[in-house]
Design brief:
Radius of gyration: 17 Å
Strand order of the largest sheet: 7-6-1-8-13-9
Order of helices and strands: EEEEEHEHEHEHEEEEE
Structural class: alpha/beta
Number of helices: 4
Largest sheet: 6 strands, parallel
Distance between the termini: 18 Å
Strand content: 25-35%
Length: 180
């Protein structure tokens, strides 16, 4: 099973940041970013699926400048087999639609049976990248998952998702699919 997990670093607001008033940008250093806890949960889910099936390849996919490689290495240390960073020097400002487009195109090139994304990023809280990738790739998407398992024939996912007031719902979904 080929599993892609979309990841990124999030701005560490506990570091001293400086605003450049000429360019209105933050003076960021490599240590200005920390792992996104929601992406860590997605990586853990991917590794559990690989363990459950006894086989598979987990690829971490990120969009970012060369400085994103340090964060990608931290994520890779958790046990994924491959990390892929996508970037184009003409990119200046990344919003969720641009990020989704690049990650969807890269996912298509890499090939996948399953794509996992964190619920949202800790710094922007938009929660749009996963659903946008699913739309671009014409994949079924289930959000707010609490538990994920794959059928023995690897054709279906059984997902327990969170609802309001602590309720849960079980959803069966054909693969390939994207979950957040």
């Amino acid at each position: 099973m080929r599993i892609i997990v979309c990841v990124r670093g999030v701005l560490n607001v506990n570091t001293s940041l400086r605003l450049d008033f000429k360019t209105y940008t933050l003076g960021l250093k490599a240590n200005s970013y920390i792992p996104n806890p929601y992406d860590l949960a997605a990586i853990e889910a991917a590794l559990r699926i690989r363990e459950q099936l006894g086989e598979g390849k987990v690829t971490l996919l990120t969009l970012g400048a060369p400085t994103a490689e340090d964060m990608l290495k931290k994520y890779l240390a958790l046990g994924a087999q491959e990390g892929v960073r996508v970037w184009h020097d003409d990119l200046i400002e990344l919003d969720s639609s641009v990020t989704s487009l690049f990650l969807a195109r890269a996912s298509k090139k890499l090939g996948y049976d399953l794509i996992l994304c964190g619920r949202e990023s800790l710094d922007t809280h938009t929660g749009q990248v996963g659903p946008r990738i699913a739309e671009l790739l014409d994949l079924p998407h289930v959000a707010t998952i609490a538990r994920l398992s794959i059928s023995p024939d690897k054709k279906e996912a059984i997902v327990e998702r969170k609802l309001e007031k602590g309720d849960r719902e079980v959803v069966r979904c054909l693969l390939p699919a994207l979950f957040t």
